[in-house]
Amino acid sequence: MPSFKLDGKTIPFEPGESIIGAARKAGVEIPHYCWHPGLSAPANCRMCLVEIKPAAGQRPIQLDVLSLDPKTGEYKYQPKPKLQPACQYPAVDGQEVLSDSSTHVGDARKAVQELLLLNHPVDCPICDQSGECKLQDYWLEHQKTQKRMRDEPIHKPKAVVFGPTIVYDAERCVMCTRCIRFMEEVAKDPVLDMRERGNLNEISVAPGRQLDGNYTLMTEHVCPVGALTATDFRFKARVWFLRSVKSVCQGCATGCNAWLDYDPRTSSVYRYRPRENAEVNKFWMCDPGMLSYKRAHEGRVAEPRIAGKTTTVQRALESAKKHFDGVPRESIAIVFHARYSNEDNWALKELAITLLGTRMFYRSGGAPGTGDDILIHADKNSNTAGLNQLAPSARPFADLLADIKKGAVTHAIALGGATPGDPEADLAELRGLKSLVTISAHDGPLTKAAAVVLPATSWAEAGGTYTNAKGLRQISEKAIEPIGSSQPAWKVLAELGRVLGVEPSWSKLKDIRARLLAVEMPSQPDVSAQAE
Amino acid sequence: MGTAFPKKPVSKAAVVPVTYADRNISTQSFLPEIIKGLGVSMRHFFHNTREMMRGDRPDPVTERLDEGVTTISYPEQKRPYPERFRGLHRLTQREDASPRCVACLCCSTACPAQCIHIEAGEYAEGDSRRGYERYPVKFVIDELRCIFCGYCVEACPCDAIRMDTGAHAAPYDTRDQFIYEKDLLISFPGRDGSFATDNPRHEPGDPTHPGLSREQQH
Q1: pTM (predicted TM-score)
Q2: Which of A446, B134, B164, B214 could disulfide-pair with B103, CB 3.0 to 4.6 Å?
Q3: Interface test mutation site (partner B, options A123, A203, A263, max chain B beta carbons within 10 A)
Q4: Which residue segments constitute the domains of chain A, with CATH numbers given?
């Protein structure tokens, strides 16, 4: 593999790769605004300028410029090398590149940073990017001087509504054009462009259009400064109070990797941020997926219920036992759910096979939707592939409804609330069951028809593995504390097993994971990637 | 009756016998001793008074008055505090008497005592500041927990919180009286008596303000 030297460090690269891209892969950051690993390189911010030493036998590209000699106080001609943008300059084998170690590069960065902040309003207190802003970070790293311009800065429109999800602030914009390029190159909807020039230029939406579609929130996430802010997150929180865990989006079967940002003080989830994974979602996420963080709080089952009335966990478990008294254990139907983790479904299967002896397996899940060829999958369940591997014999939900009608199924234990069909129709059919015990995090026909509902944690409150449509098993970590008296479904199932008079074979998540790996999916790699 | 910690027998020579007065009514009522003590005080009183009347010794009160008394009648009189004395907090006002605070939470983040609690909210529909900035729905300072370090004032990017009231927390009866809410904090004037600050602010609608929409030119 060819390699070049960056500040003395050897960095390998693929032929055709840029200096900044190869450095990033090696874990070295060259400061940049406009460059994004998933987008084209326009080289317009000039922050990533580096000094490239001439090859042996070649003349250096340099100019003599007047510069002040601080010792004598006189101006002298001194050679200054031509700096190159690392985002556009391809890496060359054996080349020597200076970044942090070059004084010329340091001066250039300081000057670029000062230029970008020249007309910046410095309204950090009312800016939602504050705390994760590249301008703040690079000011501290590379500038650290006050503004020298005494004039009133150029004022530009603020709080311009670009569409239902995005608000634009032209004053804070550094014109990196990442949002324009994202809409053009990834979302394939070139709705944004730049207008005017110099210090008057600003991002604008195509006339007659607004910034809409399924990939608008990504423009806010590619924006390195606070110019684009999401209506959903705007004014909601200060980012330095938030903590992030590595999560997996539950919106569809794609299983995009995401950071789930939550406030540990109030135990509430605030947003998703895309997490880089070259195998799944690269750097991107869709709008419906990014807004699906709300499901951590909306439509939740927080407390156990007996016939619709709130009760305690102990009473609910006793009631569940009464419902199954005298019922042959092998005649209890088991309903798996494609929105629950492998661990939860595994625990339900284990309970069914080894403890109850039933093999009447059915499967449920959310209703399918529409997909696209970028990220969105038509299957709106996060763990369909995992359930296929775990319980291949599980019959579709329609069969369950048919069997209830026939009277073949009278008692059932179900995981999850959502059903694939029309909620009202499914609910009416499910009411034909004599007794249904549902363990669920969210409300749905399966909880509404249930005699006993036991609350389970959502993906945000417990760790779990989810298998996406490509068959990748991905771990989603725990963010907030469980809501109400909910517990992870595998724990609830263990308690249910104990109440039904059988000792469950699992007590820790670790046990389940070990057995999942050993038995079900021996060779699937676990994919977790680092953030940008 | 055995003792838990047997002591060494006390040597006879070290023992000093103490005699106690008899417990009769005159000793138990303490009256004779009180009268005896009062007698000593009165003797000194008349002795000093006589010497002062004769002019044998100066009057200590008038003597101190001549020297210049350092005691003052607080709280009617107050000592001047230094110019940069950090007193109770106040929230500075805009021209329309609303707080300058934009609820950025910098002060509560900087506060080492964690005594500032802010709940941010968005301006109501139709307000010219809606969509532009936030305001504090709640702004509470626990003055009892505050250590008066002044970090909140340093952190504030809007000059919205100041400690220039020149006052310090009064000794209250209960702890909840030290919990200062937004309305109270905004009612304190600075030392110069004003509620504003000298630093200008660009309000939406001002000529210097950047404007809220593309149509609203400036």
Answers
A1: 0.84
A2: B134
A3: A123
A4: 3-116 (3.10.20.740), 152-296 (3.30.70.20), 305-520 (3.40.50.740)
